[in-house]
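Input/output pair, single chain:
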Amino acid sequence: MVYTILDLKRRLRKAEKMWRFHREKANFETFKSLHNEYTCTINSAKRKAICEKVLMGEGDSKSLVSELCGTKPENPLPSEASDEDLAN
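Output:
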């Protein structure tokens, strides 16, 4: 899947450069069709990855949400015995 996405991206950028340089309708149509294919492939890969994470995280919704959102479960503040110690 990764090689497919990378190949599509290369072909898309090459078609975009051709269209921007020559400004021909045929080049634009090629660019547009490759762009649609690339977008569809990226979206399906994202959808598949999220579905796999949801299926793997059955029952533990807290860790699933933190993994999908990219949040860290640990407290960023240093641990101190009291508020005064933390302030000093």
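Residues 2-72 form one domain. The helical segments are 2-22, 25-56, 61-69, 83-87.
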